[in-house]
Design a protein that fits this description.
alpha/beta, Rossmann fold, 2 domains, 9-stranded mixed sheet, 4-stranded antiparallel sheet, 15 strands, 33% helix
Amino acid sequence: MPTRRFPQPFIDRYSQFIPDFDAFLDAMQRPLRRTFRVNTLKATRDQVLDLMADLKPEPLAWYELGFSLARDMTESGSGDSDRVPSTSLGKRIEHFIGLIYVQEAASMVPPLVLQPQPGERVLDIAAAPGSKTTQMSAMMQHTGLIISNDPAPMRVRGLIGNIDRAGCLNVAVCRMDGASLARMVTGTCDRVLVDAPCSSEGTIRKSPQALDRWSVAAIERLTSIQKRLIVAGYLALKPGGVMVYSTCTVAPEENESVVAHLLDRQPEAEIRPAELPGLVTRPGLREWEGAEYPEAVGSCRRILPQDNDTEPFFLALIRRPS
């Protein structure tokens, strides 16, 4: 496997707060294992495992409906098709008819932390391509309402396709600016997911081109969007409602700084620890480049690739007081 050349500013930044930085870089250079989620709207866990037994899927330690392919399966997916049948999950009939959703493992975490319940009203403010909307629809068992939004026409087309393929009946799709939509439903949502557009540093493991596009300037351009979305999403909550803010990036400007911005605007907001048994997480940062964050920001969680063999991810579980 060729060694990826990480820009020196990337190394200088993240070696400051990742103590096992060599392990982080090593993990970021390994290809991701292929992972999928069973869609219980269309089949049971056991039914899907019977159909996919040829791939010997391995359960994720922290999610009974999430599975990965063994490393040798993943790496031989483009090789001898007689030796390893149909390892390309996207070409499987189970994917085509919606029995599974091909989804990166860390991407499954935000809905599990948000815990939408049957009958609730949920806003997914930046939803495309739909992995988390469809996951939440299954968790809600076709009941309640998910408002699934994305502002980009082409992305909405893919969002609708995935919702239809998964058989979700409790989803309304919108194409609007996320903050504007959230303001329209102020104070009416039981739960809100802000899986914010970000610099996508976490996708380097599956797309080396993401590293070619990386720059500090790109990170800084996104923070104003993220701050708008987190505040608007919080205000869309009912009193007592819960929100998850998440990204697939390592940058503190897109993570802890955005949560600190919310606390500055809405100091009553409660940041709660987001834990899943079996998933290794690290606490949020308390400072970055001279900026000190409120103590509550330490309750945010970072998922690093060397800990669970996933993409990097960031999570904040936020409650609006009753």
